Every structure is written in C-alpha cells, then in structure tokens.
C-alpha cells in the first residue's frame, strides 16, 4: 500500500516540485513558451464563446416563431410572366384551414391568416402598421404572451367583432405613455377597440419588426379590410416536434386533394416547417463554430511545438544536471517524469491563463460588437484538457531523450 | 555521528571476501571503425576499509576502469562483483539502484546542481532512494553529514557562494549521505590549490579512519602518497599494485602548515 502511495503520489509530487523550481528559474522563458498555448487556448475559447452566442441568438429567433409551427403559404401567382411571390395566389380558403384542424389528428390549433398594411389612426396620431387577421388561438400557436389585457375569443371571431390586440411598438408610436386598453383606433374608417397589448418579441426571422402590428379576428379583417375570401397563410400547431414531418405530409396530401391537383401538377402552396428551419440554422451555425475553433486550434499546435522546442533546449542545457542525477541513482523514470511534468506544467498553466484571456476577449468582443456570447463550461474543460494533452504529447520526446542519456557522456558534457 | 557510517570492525585485518572483485575485466570502445581497448584483462580485489589510488597517464584506462567500478558502465568481458553482486547481469535500472545505495561519487569539477542549496544537493541521493526517506529524516541526515565535512551552518548557501574546497566538501557530503559501501573519487583535488587539496585529503583520511572504503583516480603522485595502496595503470593493464610504505599524513601536514603560517604572522 505504502509503495503505491509512494510511487503514484509522493514521488510525482516531489518531482513536480523540482520541475516547478526549474521553471521558476527561467521565468521569462517559461512565460514566452507558455504564450503560444495561452494565445491558442484564448483563441479557441473566445471563438467558441462567440460562436455559441450567435447560435443561441439565432435559435431564439427560430423559437420566437412559435411552438411546433407549420405555416402553409398560398403558392405564387403567375400572370403573364409576372411572379407575385409567396402568399399571393388565391387558393387557400377558410374551409382549408378548418379541414386541417378537423382531419389531421396531430394538429392541435389552427389560425388562418390574412395580412395587410394600413394606416392606423388613434389618439390624434397616425402610423402605418401591419394588420394581421388571425384566429383566437394565434397567440397560443406563436407562444406569444400578452403584456396586458386579453386576447379576443372564438366568439369575437365568429361575430366579426371590431377588437384588436396591439404590438408594443405601435402602442408607443400612437399612445406613448397612455394605457391603450379601451382606446379606439381607426383602420380604413373602421373603429377597433383595443383589448390587449402584446409583449415585445423583437425582430422575426426575416428581420421584420414583430412588435409593430395589430392583430384582429380574421373574419373582421376579411370583411372590413381586405375584402378578399382567400387566405395568405394558415398557421398550424402540431402536438409534438416528432410528429411535425408526418403532419406536414398529411396536410400536403389533404390540400392536394381539396385543391383537386392531379399527380402531374405541383403544389399550389408551400409549407414552412419550423423544425426544418431550426435544423438548418443549427447546422450552419455549428459548422461556423467548428470552423472558427479549428482555425484557432492551429495556433494551439504551434504552441505545442514551441514547448517541444524549449524542452529540447532545456534538456541539452541541463545535460550535466541529468548526468549527475543519473550517476547518483535516479531511475530513467524519475528523469522522464521530471521533464514531462515541466512540459505539462507549462502547457497547463498556459491553458489556464488562456482560458482567462479568452473569456476576457470574448466579453470584450461581445461588448464592442453588441453580440451575445456564451462561455460554456465544456469549452473551458476541453481547452484545459487539450492543453494538458499537448504538454504530455510534445513533452514526451524531449523527456525521453533526457531519460535515455548516457551518464558518462552527460557528466563529461560542457 | 558514527552511526551514520559503516562500523570500522573490518579495517584492521583484511576480511575473506572483498567488496570489489574484478576478474579479467575488459572494455573496448568502438568508434568509426577504430577499436580502442581501454581496459584489458584487469584483475583486482579491493577490501573493506581500503584507501586506493589509481594512477596512470591519460589514456591508461584508469577513467574507463573508474566508470566500471562506479557502475556507470559495464565490462565487455570478465566479471565485476560489487559486494558479492555480479554487475554484468544487472539492468540499467538495477545499476541505478545499486549506485544509489552502495556508491558515493566525488568528481573533479564537483558536479553540484547550480542554483540549488548545499543542503538540497546533499539531500539529492535520498530523493532517489527506494523506499523514499521521509523529508524530516532527509533534512536531519543531510545536516549531520554536512557537519561531518565541516560545513555546519552552510546548508543554505548556493554552490557559487562557496569556495572550491567547500564545494568539494558538499560533494563529499552528498557521496556519504546514503551510507555507501565505497566512495569513488575522480581526481577530487584536480581543481583545487595545494593547500585545499591537503584539506580535502585530510577529510578523506578521516573518513577512511572511520571505516569507509575509498577509491580515487589521480595523476598526481603527491596526492596518491596519502593513500594506503597505489595501483598504477598503463595501456589498460595494471602495471603495479603496491602498499604505500611512506604514507603521508594530510592531517599532520595541515597542522604543520598552520603552525608555519602562525609563525610567519608573528615574525
């Protein structure tokens, strides 16, 4: 038992003390040698922090779309070679939306959507805003809580009530500090009573401001504002992430059937799958993070070579010391361990300083560029263990060279 | 203090088994097509309590012989047994253990670790001992041996703060600290002035009187004259092996030197 304690604890600890003493003797050289590792680790840690931050930011934008959301857009309308873009074709109807809600078992909520841009007048101000006609379950689908007031009900949708839920940006433009609930705004000469205020959600996927809008019952919007019987899109919420692809396939075949499309014709609608967007965005940002990390890890490699270089110099310089130690009875293992610990200490110390520097640099970048940064524990642990490994790897050859020295030659070395 | 050292029970009459027995030992070096026969068929017995000088011109093979005696090198042929153990059959690691436990080395250029205190230099062999000596015991033993070589209280000095003679004393203390069977000294006075040489030889004399076996290589007849037995080598062979009839006493000469100096100052 004691032999084990001595071999695996006491002796390495004492050897480490010798190694540390040697490093302390050459402070500047040790620092310069460790600098390669410091810079490498700092680069890797800060790059991963910035990359993770960007990823999280993008993910939160995707998540702001809603929960398990499928959006069915009407296809594009072509007339005389002019392509009017997504949502422009007159194909999606309220009946389509109802059919999706009734016939697809995984669908838990449906909101038909019509949308227009109009001048909103209220409190003596006017402001051009997006007017979205939706169903009562829209906010639930988009996972979008109200800041104040209430959402309109199914009853309001059925009766075509003139009520509106207003976005935070629109509120500040029209009402300033005044509480907008209970106030009336006029859109295309129709008065709407404001019954709720949306919480702020920021920019959407396309960069449009989601806080600058009014949400009204889609029935009201179609009757009073657009005068159109076709929908721009249908928002569909599916019960779980795993069922989204299946639900998408079912909706596709249902709509094809309802629109009487033959096997040769392509879809006259498009389905946007939130999970697909999230997956794509994730894979892109992961690739970018990996790319950044791998570029900066090249400097880690260079740092490792620097350590090897200095250790080789150190072994040559201390040939006589090694000779003395071997002559008075040091085992090859003792010498190997001594130099290996020296190299590992250099790289591990460099790793720890590098992590500190990297975290600092990441915060600085985050502060200057106004981007989110995330320093993950795993990247810190990874950086430390990689630098430890580098020390062992690049320190081994010089250490073995020292351990294999012939004591007679080493003692004679000048 | 004497408990640190082997008992001098065997100094007076030569015991039946020698600590060193060389039997027809040869050492040949090969370098780029040239064969150098450094040691050719040396027969040698060294007994406990002996004080041997190995002499010879450079190239006589005395250094090669010394390297083999010190277990830093193995003979090509012949047998070398140290304390009854045949060296030729041991591994590099076993030789290291043997050097650590049974041999003490003193070199011409002292070979102390620089920027390491005298005390730490003396502790070094104990660091490589198996089983490990406790730190407190290491310190105690190192201090005791330093006191024995006349350097009590200088333990915290660095080698470059000590004179040549003092550095060699530290080296001798280091050689003694593991209570070796034998101390091997390679030109121990080669880098010292004549007065310091006498002091160092006086120290060796003292150690030998307390029972320690000493083998030293030297090319100076004056230094060899302090030893009990003189071996002269030439061309890798033992030319002569004689007991020193007119042995000089370093302690007496030192005493005389001190007297003469005091006289000169008074005059």
Describe the model.
The complex is a heterodimer of chains A (414) and B (267). Chain A is of the alpha+beta class and 414 residues long. In chain A, 57% of the residues lie in helices and 18% in strands. Chain A has a 6-stranded mixed barrel. In chain A, strands 2-3 form a two-stranded antiparallel sheet. The longest helix of chain A is centred in the C-terminal third of the chain and has 44 residues. Chain B has 267 residues and is an alpha/beta fold. Chain B contains 8 helices and 10 strands. The longest helix of chain B has 17 residues. At the A-B interface, helix 1, helix 10 and helix 13 of A face helix 2 and helix 3 of B.
Give short descriptive properties of this protein.
heterodimer, A: 414 residues, alpha+beta, 6-stranded mixed barrel, two-stranded antiparallel ribbon, 57% helix, B: 267 residues, alpha/beta, 6-stranded mixed sheet, 4-stranded antiparallel sheet, 10 strands, globular
> What is the strand tally of chain A?
12
Largest sheet of chain B: 6 strands, mixed
- Series of H and E elements of chain A: HHEEEHEEHEHEHEEEHEHEHHHHH
State the secondary-structure class of chain A.
Answer: alpha+beta
Widest sheet: strand ordering of chain B:
6-7-8-3-9-10
Annotation, overall tally of beta strands of chain B: 10
Most residues in contact, chain pair and counts: A-B, 23 and 27 residues
Mean pLDDT of chain B: 88
Mean pLDDT of chain A: 88
Number of helices of chain B: 8
User: What is Rg of chain B?
Assistant: 19 Å
Order of helices and strands of chain B: EEEHEEHEHHHEHEHEEH
Main sheet specs of chain A: 6 strands, mixed, barrel
| Distance between the amino and carboxyl termini of chain B | 40 Å
* Strand-residue proportion of chain A: 15-25%
Please state roughly what percent of the residues of chain B sit in beta strands, choosing from under 5%, 5-15%, 15-25%, 25-35%, 35-45% or over 45%: 15-25%
Q: What are the low-pLDDT stretches of chain B, counting only 5+ consecutive residues below 50?
A: 1-13
Tell me which oligomeric state these chains represent.
Answer: heterodimer
The helix fraction of chain B, in percent, is 25-40%
Q: Work out the helicity level of chain A.
A: 55-70%
User: Shape of chain B, please?
Assistant: globular
């Amino acid at each position: 038992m004691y032999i084990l304690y001595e071999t695996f604890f006491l002796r390495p600890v004492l050897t480490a003390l010798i190694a540390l003493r040697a490093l302390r003797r050459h402070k500047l050289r040790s620092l310069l040698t460790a600098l390669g590792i410091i810079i490498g680790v700092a680069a890797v840690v800060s790059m991963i922090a910035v990359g993770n931050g960007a990823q999280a930011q993008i993910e939160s934008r995707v998540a702001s779309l809603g929960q398990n959301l499928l959006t069915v857009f009407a296809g594009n309308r072509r007339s005389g070679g002019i392509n009017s873009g997504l949502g422009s074709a007159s194909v999606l109807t309220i009946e389509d939306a109802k059919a999706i809600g009734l016939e697809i078992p995984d669908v838990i909520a449906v909101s038909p959507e019509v949308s227009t841009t109009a001048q909103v007048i209220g409190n003596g101000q006017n402001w051009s805003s997006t007017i979205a006609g939706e169903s009562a379950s829209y906010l639930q689908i988009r996972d979008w809580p109200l800041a104040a007031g209430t959402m309109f009900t199914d009853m309001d949708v059925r009766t075509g009530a003139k009520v509106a839920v207003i976005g935070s940006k629109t509120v500040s433009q029209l009402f300033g500090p005044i509480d907008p609930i209970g106030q009336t705004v006029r859109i295309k000469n129709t008065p709407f009573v404001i019954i709720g205020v949306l919480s702020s959600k920021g920019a959407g996927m396309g960069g449009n401001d989601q806080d600058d809008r009014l949400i009204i019952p889609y029935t009201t919007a179609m009757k009073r504002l657009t005068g159109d019987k076709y929908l721009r899109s249908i928002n569909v919420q599916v019960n779980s992430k795993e069922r989204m692809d299946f639900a998408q396939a079912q909706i596709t075949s249902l709509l094809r059937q309802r629109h009487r499309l033959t096997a040769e014709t392509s879809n006259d609608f498009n389905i946007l799958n939130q999970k697909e967007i999230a997956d794509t965005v994730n894979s892109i940002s992961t690739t970018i993070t990996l790319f950044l990390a791998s570029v900066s890890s090249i400097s880690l490699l260079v740092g490792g070579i620097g350590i090897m270089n200095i250790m080789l110099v150190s072994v040559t310089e201390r040939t006589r010391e090694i000779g003395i130690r071997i002559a008075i009875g040091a085992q090859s293992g003792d010498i190997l361990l001594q130099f290996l610990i020296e190299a590992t200490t250099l790289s591990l110390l460099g790793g720890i300083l590098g992590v500190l520097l990297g975290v600092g640099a990441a915060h600085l970048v985050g502060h200057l560029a106004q981007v989110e940064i995330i320093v993950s524990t795993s990247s810190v642990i990874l950086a430390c263990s990689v630098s430890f490994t580098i020390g062992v790897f690049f320190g081994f050859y010089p250490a073995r060279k020292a351990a294999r020295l012939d004591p007679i030659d080493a003692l004679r070395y000048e | 203090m004497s408990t640190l050292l082997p008992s001098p029970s065997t100094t007076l009459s030569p015991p039946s088994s020698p600590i060193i027995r060389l039997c027809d030992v040869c050492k040949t070096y090969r370098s780029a097509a040239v064969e150098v026969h450094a040691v050719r068929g040396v027969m040698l017995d060294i007994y406990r309590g002996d004080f041997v000088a190995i002499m010879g011109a450079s190239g006589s093979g005395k250094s090669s012989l010394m390297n083999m005696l010190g277990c830093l090198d193995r003979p090509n042929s012949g047998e070398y047994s140290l304390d009854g153990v045949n060296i030729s059959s041991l591994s590099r690691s076993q030789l290291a253990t043997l050097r650590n436990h049974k041999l003490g080395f003193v070199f011409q250029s002292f070979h102390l670790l620089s920027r390491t205190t005298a005390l730490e230099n003396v502790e070094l062999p104990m660091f490589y001992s198996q089983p490990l000596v406790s730190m407190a015991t290491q310190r105690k033993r190192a201090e005791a041996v330093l006191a024995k070589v006349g350097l009590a209280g200088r333990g915290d000095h660095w080698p470059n703060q000590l004179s040549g003679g003092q550095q060699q004393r530290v080296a001798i203390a280091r050689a003694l600290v593991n209570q070796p069977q034998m101390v091997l000294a390679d030109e121990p006075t080669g880098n010292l002035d004549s007065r310091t040489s006498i002091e160092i030889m006086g120290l060796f004399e003292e150690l030998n009187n307390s029972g320690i076996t000493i083998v030293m290589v030297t090319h100076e007849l004056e230094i060899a004259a302090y030893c009990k037995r003189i071996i002269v080598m030439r061309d890798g062979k033992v030319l002569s092996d004689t007991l020193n009839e007119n042995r000089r006493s370093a302690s007496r000469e030192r005493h005389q030197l001190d007297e003469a100096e005091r006289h000169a100052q008074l005059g």
